[in-house]
Design brief:
4-stranded antiparallel sheet, 5 helices, alpha+beta, 35% helix
Length: 168
C-alpha cells in the first residue's frame, strides 16, 4: 500500500527548475529582484504530492522543463491574448496558479510516469479524497528532447473543468 499522507523524506525539486524562466523574470532576478517569478509561487500541497509520487511510486528523476509561469511568460501572454480576443474572460491555468509542471520525459519512462500518477490518484479516490492531479497531459510528438507530460492540480478555477485530459 502506498503511503499518500506522510511527507516525502525530502524535496526533490530545486527552486531553479520550478521558477519562471521567461526573460522578464530572468532580467528582474539579474537586477537583484530575487522573488521575480520565484518557485515560492508554487503551492506547497501540490509539491508535496509530486514529491510523494517521485519517492513512493515513480522512483526515478522527474526533470522539470517548466514550473511556475508569471503573467509575462510568453506562453501565458499568448493564451491570455487569444482568449481575450475571442471576447472571453481569462482564467489562469495550472502554471500561473502554482499547480502545474511539465516533466521532460519520453518513451517507456513517460508511460510509467503516467501510470504512477494515475495510481497515486486512485489511492486518493479509495480514501474518498480528491485527486491531487487533475490534469495529466502528454506531449509526445516531435524531437525527444522537447517531449513532456504536463501535470496539473488546478481544481479551484471556475470554467476549467477537472479532471481533464488534453494532448498537444
Amino acid at each position: 500500500m502506498i503511503d499518500i499522507h506522510t511527507p516525502a523524506s525530502r524535496n526533490y525539486f530545486t527552486d531553479e527548475e520550478l521558477q519562471c524562466r521567461c526573460t522578464f523574470c530572468a532580467r528582474s532576478r539579474d537586477q537583484g529582484e530575487r522573488e521575480a517569478g520565484s518557485a515560492s509561487n508554487m503551492r506547497a500541497d501540490f509539491l508535496a504530492h509530486l514529491n510523494r509520487v517521485l519517492e513512493r511510486v515513480y522512483c526515478r528523476p522527474m526533470p522539470v522543463s517548466s514550473g511556475y509561469r508569471c503573467q509575462h511568460h510568453p506562453e501565458e501572454s499568448f493564451k491570455r491574448r487569444r482568449v481575450e480576443q475571442g471576447g472571453k474572460t481569462w482564467i489562469p491555468g495550472d502554471h500561473p496558479c502554482g499547480v502545474g509542471v511539465d516533466i521532460r520525459i519520453h518513451g517507456s519512462a513517460a508511460h510509467v510516469l503516467m501510470r504512477s500518477l494515475h495510481v497515486y490518484n486512485w489511492f486518493h479516490l479509495q480514501k474518498n479524497q480528491p485527486q491531487p492531479f487533475t490534469a495529466i497531459c502528454p506531449h509526445q510528438r516531435g524531437r525527444t528532447e522537447e517531449r513532456f507530460i504536463h501535470i496539473g492540480g488546478n481544481n479551484l478555477a471556475p470554467g476549467r473543468p477537472r479532471p481533464w485530459l488534453w494532448t498537444y
